[in-house]
Design a protein that fits this description.
The chain has two domains: 16-237, Rossmann fold, CATH 3.40.50.1820; 246-533, TIM Barrel (Alpha-Beta Barrel), CATH 3.20.20. It has 19 helices and 18 strands. The protein has helices at residues 3-24, 59-64, 78-87, 103-119, 134-146, 163-167, 191-196, 222-231, 265-281, 303-314, 334-343, 346-354, 373-385, 399-411, 415-444, 458-473, 481-484, 504-511, 527-533, and strands spanning 38-39, 51-56, 69-70, 74-75, 90-93, 127-132, 152-156, 173-181, 199-208, 246-255, 287-290, 296-297, 300-301, 318-321, 361-362, 389-390, 450-455, 476-478. Helix 6 links the parallel strand 7 and strand 8 (173-181).
């Protein structure tokens, strides 16, 4: 068939689709009056500050009515789902689609509705499209057609081998959250779509462990409702769009692992393998800082624990010294602290030597570098004599609080809470990137090469893919710690001897005489995470 004819036919077809969609939508007036609750179409009076959510139900509602029953999953509580979303503060736009609805035509209708909201002044980050099963496929088509990087989408149990995707090429745009249950025999990961799409801004995938497959869609379960609510809480407008070239060195403390809940060596091996798989996949030249006390089991060195360090080296990554027992320089005499640092290098130095690599970096536990300049300088001289460089941190954060909350939820089998914590983690981390990028500009007039502090824990093993995606989207490339330290900012004077373990950006700022107003705006850890962590 002639290519130009095919192209004209396709364009004509989509012209018809869009005309049908336009005919199905009535244009409301632009206004500021709030219209809450459940609506079947965009409201006549639009509240520009409201959070608008389109809920696109599963195929069974389209086929059998608003309260259908599946022999396998029970009643599809469509109305209860919508009411739950309304009660979470959304203006919900949803209707029962007629039987036999064409997904592409309906997606075009949703596109038109969203365009009306945008034209009325609703910020795109206040618009979310949630689609379940076939509704999720419609959401994916909507994302492809709209091509807006800031609108939110939640695709629930809708990725797989549907005939819809064989007839329509999906190219996702916007902030995409994928949710499905690991026992779903009809839906799977959305990663193939993520990898091939050109307009994804943020992305995350939540795999529920409820074991009920497609049944997660039938009721407003907190396991998916909470991640949806968290997903709509985007960083400030504009932060995600910056395309400045940035560089970051990624470091992990407390190797070979850290957890507030007890786990066996099999679990730690899996956690390490999962974390390293993600690090290698994103080509991150990370450095892991070791506490060799964690290599002991019942007072004896454990080959299983040492093998975890070998896994890091076999992945072509580097190891550093984090002292033997994670002592605090602020509460430990200098001589005892130096002895603990020496004790913490024996296994690590030997493993590195077998790879023909030097042991060259030291990271202070708690980022505590001394309560007086005499102690601070004496220990720095001790490190230089041993061939070490101090590994500073510019992007400090409380990933350890999130990790504690996540591990406790996992231990008690509370998947809903664990999922909510994971959904909040990457947006929280992005807020810290945004903060320290601005602090760098305020201090140096430019963005420095950054050094990120993370911990080797279950949370990062499960979420590093999404964290790396966020960094890439913000324009970062992953560099070595050595490369980061070539930035002249790291030559700045540092006379900080305060009690806190703070970012080197703030140490340099305090040394330069910056006052309280300079440090304002640091993000806070969500209260529910602090509570779940038991702090």
């Amino acid at each position: 068939m002639n290519d130009s004819f095919t192209r004209r036919a396709w364009q004509a077809s989509w012209t018809c689709v869009l005309l049908l969609a336009l005919a199905a939508v009535s244009y409301p007036q632009t206004a500021h009056s709030s219209q809450g609750g459940w609506l079947k179409d965009v409201p006549r009076l639009i509240d520009r500050q409201a959070k608008h959510l389109f809920y696109l139900h599963g195929f069974i509602v389209e086929n059998e009515g608003i309260r259908p029953t599946s022999p396998r999953y029970g009643v599809y509580e469509y109305e209860q789902i919508v009411r739950t979303l309304v009660n979470r503060g959304f203006v919900v736009i949803s209707e029962a689609r007629p039987k036999g609805t064409n997904p592409e035509v309906y997606a075009a209708k949703v596109v038109t509705q969203i365009q009306i909201l945008l034209k009325a002044g609703v910020p795109p980050q206040n618009i979310t499209v949630v689609g379940a099963s076939r509704g999720g496929a419609i959401a994916a088509i909507t994302s492809t057609l709209l091509k807006n990087r800031d609108v939110n989408y939640v695709i629930m149990a809708a990725c797989g081998n549907s005939t819809i995707y064989r007839n329509f090429k999906v190219d996702l745009w916007g902030n995409i959250l994928s949710i499905y249950d690991y026992k779903d025999d009809g839906a799977t990961t959305c990663r193939p779509f993520f990898d091939k799409s050109t307009g994804v801004n943020r992305r995350q995938e939540v795999v529920l462990k409820l074991g009920i497959g497609h049944g997660i869609l039938y009721r407003p379960l907190p396991e998916w409702v909470e991640p949806v609510v968290e997903w709509t809480r985007q960083p400030r407008k504009g932060a995600a769009r910056r395309t400045t070239h940035r560089e970051v060195a990624v470091t992990f403390d407390d190797l070979p692992f850290v957890s507030v809940t007890p786990r066996d060596d099999t679990a730690y091996t899996k956690m390490t393998a999962d974390l390293l798989r993600s690090i290698v996949a994103y080509k991150v030249p990370a450095v892991g800082f070791v506490n060799e006390i964690k290599l002991l089991d019942a007072g004896e060195q454990s080959d299983a624990r040492v093998s975890l360090l070998r896994m890091w080296l076999d992945a072509d990554l580097e190891l550093g010294n984090h002292t033997f027992s994670h002592l605090d320089l602020h509460t430990t005499p200098l001589a005892a602290f130096q002895a603990d640092a020496l004790r913490g290098e024996s296994v690590t130095r030997n493993l590195l030597a077998k790879k023909k690599m030097p042991l060259r970096y030291f990271r202070h536990p708690f980022l505590h570098t001394g309560r007086d300049l005499e102690t601070k300088r004496a220990f720095e001289q001790f490190l230089r004599e041993r061939g070490y460089s101090v590994a500073p941190v510019t992007i400090d954060n409380s990933d350890w609080i999130f990790a504690a909350a996540y591990a406790r939820a996992k231990e008690r089998g509370d998947e809903a809470t664990a999922t909510r914590i994971a959904a909040a983690y990457v947006p929280y981390m992005e807020s810290y990137f945004d903060y320290y990028e601005r602090q760098s500009i305020a201090l140096f007039g430019r963005e420095t090469k950054q050094v990120l502090l993370l911990h080797a824990n279950l949370l990062n093993a499960d979420c590093f893919d999404e964290l790396a995606d966020m960094m890439l989207r913000r324009g970062y490339s992953f560099i070595t710690l050595d490369d980061a330290l070539q930035d002249t900012a790291y030559d700045s004077a540092d006379t900080f001897t305060g009690t806190g373990g703070i970012s080197w950006l703030h140490r340099w700022a305090l040394t330069a005489g910056k006052r309280d107003e300079f440090f304002r705006g640091e993000p806070a850890t969500p209260e529910f995470v602090v509570k779940e962590a038991g702090l």
